[in-house]
Amino acid sequence: MRPIASRRPTPVRRRLGRVKRSLLRALPLRGQKPSSHGPAAAPAGPSRLEVRREFVFRTAKRSATVLEIGPAHNAILPKRDGFRTKTVDYIDREGLVEKYREFPQYSPDDIEEVDYVIPAGSSMSDVIDERFDLVLASHVLEHSLSLIDFVNDCTRLLAPDGVLSLVIPDHRYCFDRFRERSSLGRVIDASLAPPRVHTVGTMTEFTLNAVKHGGSSSWAAGHKGTYQFVHGLDEARTNATRAEGDSYIDVHNWVFSPNHLRLMLHDLDVLGLISVREAAFQGTIGHEFFLNLTTAASGSGLRRDELVVLADAEQRTMDVPVFGGGATEGNPAT
């Protein structure tokens, strides 16, 4: 008797095969031990930097001309390592050193000179004449005022056959754990009427829901500890008042899990709102996942309903939260 799988209709077998291949792409890199929680645990062998570079160069050449957006103290392809990189940020090196001065874990020596200083919300491609083989944005997309405008701005900066490489935090494993994933509707609306700075609503939601887990702002699947809110109600009110002004306050505007973002990018492409498609994908390692996008790519290879199922399943991999103190109303945590 034939195996049950072989007795399924051919279209069903093909759909199952596509879903299986997508799940296999989310498995850890060679040499990593898979986690029973779905995403891979932080790699025991390669460093975080090595993992990031390995993914970037799946579809880009090491000799590529590079524009790295907002690397600050954590550049993936810094000039000092011999890469043909230029950087862009919303403040210069002196401003970045001052911004991270209160964080002793960051060394100012890791912050390189910024080649292009462009205010938040401004178009990079209107200022930067050069075009690049690789535009690299690690932990930047979630900060953008308009996701659609950011992706399209990056696309305009690409040379022919160029790659837009994104490293994105998985909200399930960082301080955004208790924020809802961003909706397609809000993404489209933000492009139609982009704010100049992050809105009062974004600042309030971010402040009220930011957490640590076991004392960490980001963690891998299986991390032990309880949750603590970082801020209290008084601080949320203060930040909401600050957001009413014209000063840019740097927070996460968008919230993603891996297949949720893949679905969103698929939808934006078929709606004609962006022109890049998925060329490579790596599921969550530690607390971040990876996407390479190009104009020539054909996409994920999955149908929309298959991406919906995968994105929906991600919410069922989340832990059962236990809180162990933290900020309370009128008593902000420090």
Structure description:
With 334 residues, the protein is an alpha/beta fold. It has a domain of 230 residues: Rossmann fold (3-Layer(aba) Sandwich). Helix content is 31%, strand content 17%. It is globular. The N terminus and C terminus are likely disordered.
Order of helices and strands: HHHEEHEHEHEHHEEHHEEHE
- Our count of helices gives 11
Please tell me the CATH architecture of the domain at 9-171 and 253-319 by its name. Answer: 3-Layer(aba) Sandwich
Please mark out the parts with pLDDT under 50 across 5 or more consecutive residues, or reply none: 1-38, 329-334
* Main sheet makeup: 7 strands, mixed
Helix/strand/pairing class, anyone? alpha/beta
Mean pLDDT value: 88
Physical arrangement of strands within the biggest beta sheet: 3-2-1-4-5-9-8
Helix content: 25-40%
- Beginning-to-end CA distance, first to last residue: 66 Å
Give the C-alpha Rg. 20 Å
What is the highest CATH level, the class of the domain at 9-171 and 253-319? Alpha Beta
Give the full name of the CATH homologous superfamily of the domain at 9-171 and 253-319.
Answer: Vaccinia Virus protein VP39
Q: What's the total count of β strands?
A: 10
Quick one: overall form? globular
> If you consult CATH, what is the topology of the domain at 9-171 and 253-319?
Rossmann fold
Into which percentage range does the β-strand content fall? 15-25%
Give the secondary structure arrangement, pairings included.
Blueprint: H1 4-7, H2 10-25, H3 48-56, E1 65-69, E2 84-89, H4 93-99, E3 116-117, H5 124-127, E4 132-138, H6 147-156, E5 158-169, H7 184-192, H8 200-209, E6 211-213, E7 227-229, H9 233-243, H10 258-270, E8 277-285, E9 288-294, H11 304-314, E10 323-326
Parallel strand pairs: 1-2, 1-4, 2-3, 4-5, 7-10
Antiparallel strand pairs: 5-9, 6-7, 8-9
